[in-house]
Specification:
The chain has helices at 12-15, 17-28, 30-46, 61-78, 81-96, 131-145, 151-164, 188-201, 209-226, 245-261, 267-281, 306-318, 322-336, 358-372; strands at 113-114, 120-121, 167-170, 175-177, 243-244, 283-284, 289-290, 293-295, 302-305, 337-338, 341-347, 352-355. By secondary structure, it is α+β, with helices and mostly antiparallel strands. It is globular and about 55 Å long.
């Protein structure tokens, strides 16, 4: 659509046929897969991070959607019809590159991903965690321009969440939905994405308002019940889980945004408790950066990740915590930026890795920054 946003990615090693096999071996037999997984991680980090031999750049739907959101933020601050034209082109790309074989518009990672011993998503599998970005960008575009250009796509995305995303667990109070379009697994941030997507689409499906509002309330109560006393959430209540920074931020931002459109009882306390946990459990005072995990389930060599810090920055802006937002923004620029290059990770040796990888996590940082400036 006039511009190429294909990019390198920190996941490139695991997208190769051999890397995927090693990751699945680790998922199924962690002790057997630990050595080859560690070898590939070390090779990718210390030998092939700059050359990227054997890797292939690709376009990602989340990059296109986030680029459109950045342009819309700029337009609302600066004006300029060319910004709207560019945003519309990114959304046209999304319409043309929806997952194939599905009756509704939806998007996934764009590469095979093994999420566990038995759950594998192929490159064409749409996900409840990726599709919301396209939806949000289209809803924002419609609000900013007053146009109905993407109404057909917004209504279709709603049907994806209402029909294709499955109910994994439900009682009279709460509901948890799937990650992909089949009975796969319960993931806390995925439940929050489905909740937020339904509230985004609500004005476009007013005839179903009562039922969808009830569904939003049940999804919220699941998130509310899953919050631990210290304010944290496990990534998933199933199997051996973890608590990380950026997924925690995603849950909080989706609750906050949903509450702006449909009041969620008790959400102010939920957000305050969760935000307090973030600042206590992840913040490194010395570096003025947020760490990756407060509870890890496997070893790693990443000291700081831009994705975590970009999502905290985004959340701080949303919540009006300007003091933290300004301080963190300055720290990100000092620690992750070199001239016009933005790096996504700082490894345990203190070396910057993954230069200009848009999906993870340059675009999330630029999106957060575009809301500040």
């Amino acid at each position: 659509m006039g511009v190429d946003l294909s990019t390198d990615d920190p996941y490139d090693i695991w997208k190769t046929a051999f890397g995927f096999q090693v990751k699945q071996l680790y998922n199924r037999h962690s002790w057997a897969g630990l050595a080859p997984a560690a070898a590939l991680t070390l090779f990718d980090t210390f030998m092939n991070n700059r050359p990227r031999v054997g890797y292939r750049r690709q376009e990602y739907p989340i990059v296109r959607a986030t680029a459109a959101l950045c342009l819309l933020n700029r337009y609302e601050k600066e004006g300029g019809p060319e910004l709207l034209v560019s945003a519309g082109r990114h959304l046209d790309w999304l319409v043309e590159n929806s997952c194939r074989g599905y009756s509704n518009f939806c998007w996934g990672l764009g590469f095979p991903y093994g999420a566990g011993p038995t759950v594998v998503y192929d490159a064409n599998t749409p996900l409840s965690t990726m599709t919301p970005y396209g939806l949000e960008a289209m809803v924002r575009y419609s609000a900013v321009t007053g146009e109905e250009r993407f109404r057909f796509a917004i209504e279709s995305i709603f049907r994806f969440f209402d029909d294709d995303i499955r109910v994994m667990a439900e009682d009279h109070e709460s509901m948890a939905t799937s990650y992909g379009p089949f009975m796969d697994r319960i993931v806390t941030n995925a439940v929050s994405y489905t909740m937020y997507s339904l509230v985004l689409a609500l004005p476009y499906v007013s005839r179903l308002r009562e039922r969808i509002e009830q569904k939003i309330g049940k999804l919220y109560r699941y998130i509310q019940q899953a919050q631990r006393p210290d304010g944290s959430w496990l990534y998933s209540p199933q199997e051996r889980s973890f608590i990380d920074c950026f997924h925690s931020c995603i849950v909080l931002k989706n609750v906050y945004k949903t509450n702006q459109a449909q009041p969620l009882p008790g959400s102010e306390n939920l957000i305050a408790t969760g935000y307090s946990y973030l600042k206590k459990a992840f913040f490194d005072e010395k570096r003025c950066l947020f760490r990756r995990f407060s509870l890890a389930n496997k070893p790693g060599i990443v000291q700081f990740d831009l994705y975590d810090n970009a999502e905290v920055l985004n959340l701080a802006v949303l919540l009006g915590d300007r003091h933290l937002a300004v301080k963190l923004f300055d720290s990100i620029r000092v620690n992750f930026c070199r001239g016009t290059d933005v790096y996504s990770q700082i490894d345990v040796t203190g070396t910057l890795r993954n230069r200009n990888t848009l999906r993870w996590a340059v675009m999330p940082f630029l999106h957060a920054a575009s809301q500040m400036i």
